[in-house]
Amino acid sequence: QVQLVESGGGTVQAGDSLKLSCAGSGLTFGLYVMGWFRQAPGKEREFVGGINWSDSTTRYGDSVKGRFTISRDNAEKMMYLHLNNVQSDDTAVYYCAASTPWLTYIGVDSASYQYWGQGTQVTVSS
Fold it and tell me: What letter does residue 90 receive in the DSSP assignment?
């Protein structure tokens, strides 16, 4: 069974950095576009960024562009999100997601992704 597990969340201060990890199992990891989403209380789920399987191109939401970086290691079935210069608005549950196989573009909607992890909480104190 396909499983995605996030880790690395916690409480940090504004301006700090942290690294989130997503571990995949039960799937050929390299066949999937991978993405990160987040959801804060009272807000809808928001696209954070994604990374393509074909050439590791990336795409980011406007709110995190220039601060967050996505990377992946298909051999290890791992994806990472590096959060730099975090702000209070970054507080949310962060979800790892995998698209349908062989998708050749990075979708920004939740509907583009087939599998989801349980999420990891990131809390940024002002």
Answer: G
CB count in 10 Å sphere of residue 90: 22
For residues 55 and 63, give the distance between their C-alpha atoms in angstroms, rounded to a whole number. Answer: 24
What is the tens place of the pLDDT at every residue in 63-119?
Answer: 999 999 999 999 999 999 999 999 999 999 999 999 988 888 999 999 999 999 999
10 token code pair: 């916690």
As a whole number of angstroms, the distance between CA 61 and CA 45 comes to 12
CA distances in angstroms from 79 to 14, 15, 49, 84, 126, listed in the order given = 24, 23, 12, 16, 28
CA atoms lying within 13 Å on the CB side of residue 66: 3
Q: Identify the three-state secondary structure at position 44.
A: coil
Among 76, 81, 40, CA closest to 58: 81
